[in-house]
Amino acid sequence: MENLTKQFGGLVALSDFNVELEEGELVGLIGPNGSGKTTAFNVITGIYRPTGGRVTLRGKDITGLRSDQITAQGIARTFQNIRLFPQMTVLENVMVGHHLRLKTSPLVAGLGLPSYVRQERAMRDESLELLQITGLEDVAHEKAGSLPYGRQRRVEIARALATEPKMLLLDEPAAGMNPEETHGLMDFIQQILKDFGLTIFLIEHQMRLVMGICERLLVLNYGVTIAKGYPEEIQNDSMVISAYLGVSANVNN
Questions:
Q1: Following DSSP, what letter does each residue of 58-112 receive, concatenated?
Q2: Tens-place pLDDT, residues 107-121
Q3: Is CATH 3.40.50.720 the classification given to domain 1-74+165-179+189-198+205-253?
């Protein structure tokens, strides 16, 4: 992400945002409410077109592509508010993610021709395997909306994984979770980072999670990057402390 800027009229929601992620990294993006974190994710994933700057993935410029095109290039995401299909089963929700890789025309699918049936069967098998890997096989045939909040979050991540991403963006995955669920989520994120060979970019307000699993952090405030570094450096950064507390802070006290 190079010099990414997003303006809404006279409001600069994101200003000259720069970050380079290495393959296999887990990097956190933090900051107070309204600091521009989700705006950054929305620009990266094509929901917003940037006012300036560009996004590249493995050297390829993907700036300005539609969200579905960016997902096809290998960037998947989750959202602050869970966006599952609540009346569909967990398996069906994950299969939706696999549909991105379906190589058939709407006509062939509508007619139920053998080539489509074979792909549909393979997609179902792959989805079941993914549910097993992510510990959700026991609820595969339950309606997604009937699950506890923490497990719905996992289903949303599993659906994102079904698109076969190179990079996964998680927008506040621990929102609304209790401490036990948060601890389980930390283990889950580290597991998928290892098992799927992903790069993960993470927005989160729960500092226990961020400091516990992220290799390095970026901090936004009013759309401007005010700090970058390792978790222990960020914890003791006076500008970060001031942004969160709203007052000047003496880190030595």
A1: TTEE-TT--HHHHHHHTEEE--SS----TTSBHHHHHHHHHGGG--S-HHHHHHT
A2: 556 666 676 677 778
A3: no
